[in-house]
Amino acid sequence: MSFYQNPVSYYRVRLALACVCVFLSATSPSLTAYAESIIPVDPNNPDAISVEANEGRFDNLNQVYELRGKVTIKRGGMLFEGEVVLIKQDKKGFKNMELKSSTNKLAHFRHERPETGVVAEGFGQTIEFDGLTDVVKLVKDARITRYQNAKQTEDVTGALITYNSRTEFFHLKNADGKKNNRVQIMIQSRN
């Protein structure tokens, strides 16, 4: 029986993550990780991070978190999902993330701006997030679709897409700069 099929081991890991969360929230208030819904994200702190995973490791000395198995991360209006996630916290407290996809499912992110009705949803084999600049990079098989009030307005694909979540600016690149590997953009009317 594998780790994921053994409910006792699975829930022990979630309970252990919850215990770590209590410790982390006391020692590092800007980082709050949780298993299931035991410790919710603070809606008043846009930098608070909520984490759910099947397995996790924490290197306190280097401020590195390694999470595996259906990882879900919430940060403000952003949601990240991947199979393997590495979170590194720099000396100023900013968290950078790298999400990897599984063999049959791409890594995913979703950015909601309820005040404007805009939702951006993206996929890639790797997703990188810079906590200082709020920039998301989608690498290989990258795609971002943007919706305005539930209506699709843009759909972009490329080898590398950089998305600034503050300004909603996209930058697209093809794989190797050759003309046969081009980026694609579909723009629709917002009306």
Task: Tell me the span between the first and last alpha carbons.
Answer: 54 Å
Mean pLDDT: 76
Radius of gyration of CA atoms, rounded to a whole number: 18 Å
Poorly predicted regions: 1-11, 22-41
Biggest sheet, open or closed, and with what strands and sense? Answer: 6 strands, antiparallel, barrel
Helices and strands, in order, run as HEEEEEEEEEEEE
What is the count of DSSP helices, taking H or I runs of 4+ residues? 1
Which oligomeric state applies? Answer: single chain
Strand order of the largest sheet: 4-5-8-9-7-6
Helix content: 10-25%
Indicate the structural class.
Answer: mainly beta
Give the strand tally. Answer: 12
Strand percentage: over 45%
How would you sum up the global shape?
globular
Provide a short characterization of the protein structure:
The chain has 191 residues and is mostly beta strands. The chain has one helix and twelve strands. A hairpin with a 2-residue loop joins strand 3 and strand 4.
Using brief descriptors, characterize the structure shown.
six-stranded antiparallel barrel; disordered N terminus; about 190 residues; mainly beta; globular; single chain
Give a topology summary.
Elements: H1 7-27, E1 49-52, E2 55-59, E3 64-75, E4 78-89, E5 95-100, E6 107-113, E7 118-124, E8 126-130, E9 135-148, E10 151-164, E11 169-173, E12 184-187
Characterise the protein shown here:
There is one protein chain. This protein has one helix spanning 7-27, and strands at residues 49-52, 55-59, 64-75, 78-89, 95-100, 107-113, 118-124, 126-130, 135-148, 151-164, 169-173, 184-187. With 191 residues, it is mostly beta strands. It has a 6-stranded antiparallel β-barrel with strand order 4-5-8-9-7-6. A hairpin with a 4-residue loop joins strand 2 and strand 3 (64-75). The longest helix is centred in the N-terminal third of the chain and has 21 residues, at 7-27.
